[in-house]
Amino acid sequence: MTFKSEAFDVSVTVPCNSPAPPSYDAISTSTVSADSIWSKLCRWIFPRASLQSKQECLSCIRAIVSSPDYSPSFVAQTASACVATLPAAEFSKLLQQPNIEDHTAPYWAIVNNRLEALWAFMDFIPDPSPACYSDLRLACMMVGDNTLFTQLDLREIVSSKDDSLRQFLGCTPDEVQIQESSGRFVASFCFRMFQKRLRTAQAIAVEYLARGRMWTLWFYLCSDGKWVVDCRLEEPSLPVEGSNQLRIEAHRKSPDCATPEPLIITTEFSLAPESGSCIPRPLIYYRLGDWPMDNDTVYVDCEGTLHMSLTITVK
Question: Which of 165, 202, 210, 312 has CB 3.0 to 4.6 Å from 221, enough for a Cys bridge?
Fold first, then answer.
């Protein structure tokens, strides 16, 4: 019998009375040579179109995300075989269950740097479950990969009013770039249509990852009518202490003017995320004055974009 996978365009022949796949638990507890796990799985799965059970699918998925002799070329064949065995919805559910050392397959694909496997898995997870979504966020935080965090669209919408307004205005998402070095990191931000969004939604916020922790930067209108910028450490981040410098760039209003000095804020902090608190305590809290309401402010460029950076040095 010949099987053709529509998802991966792979045609293979299924022999009758095929033996069961090698047990992951059995092969993972034996002496592992350079190609032992993959050679056993490949010899068994390549001539086949499908696996025989959900447990066999899980064994192969587990090998993909955890075996030391990982082979990216095996990912598509394994996914094809699993899809031939399980309905797409059931395969998606299997990938999102915490069935591998209390975490999901995508979690381990990120932690063990199996990005080919991650993207293959995500093709079957168009709308992650809450548990899978949390696991993906945790995995990105564990490896400190802010780029992947953004690519997977894992930032929480911490200001829903601003998010809907930004989309209505046709404004692209805020940009965050992270540069890490020994004992410190620099987060560079770009907020487009800054004043228009802040005046309308009265809050702008963005999440990012750095030094294995999750942070949120906020601009908002305080209860006393003053504009404030703050930075917060989110759960489940570990505590941190050190110093920081926040720098908001200034821009010339006309070519013949001198460039004004940037707004620089320097403080020290010692902070742990507050368990159970819906609003963590800020490690930076600074009143901006009323310049966000000033149409001629030097702190946005000619296109209305605010550029700033935050340098955090950890003790």
Answer: 202
Instruction: Enter the pTM of the model.
Output: 0.77
CB 141 within 8 A of CB 214: yes
Q: How many CB atoms lie within 10 A of CB 230?
A: 19
Alpha-carbon dihedral sign for residues 221, 225, 229, 233? negative
Q: Are 65 and 99 in contact (CB under 8 A)?
A: no
Query: So where are the chain's domains?
Result: 2-151, 160-314
Least confident of 33-47, 82-96, 298-312: 33-47
Separation of alpha carbons 246 and 230, rounded Å:
10
Q: Bridge-partner residues for 289, per DSSP?
A: 227
255 contacts: CB under 8 Å, gap ≥ 6: none
3-state helix, strand, coil in the chain (%, to 5): 35, 25, 40
Dist. CA 233–CA 279, nearest whole Å: 10
| Cβ atoms of 140 and 209 closer than 8 Å | yes
DSSP H helical segments within the chain, as ranges? 24-29, 36-45, 54-66, 74-85, 88-96, 105-111, 115-122, 130-143, 146-151, 160-169, 194-201
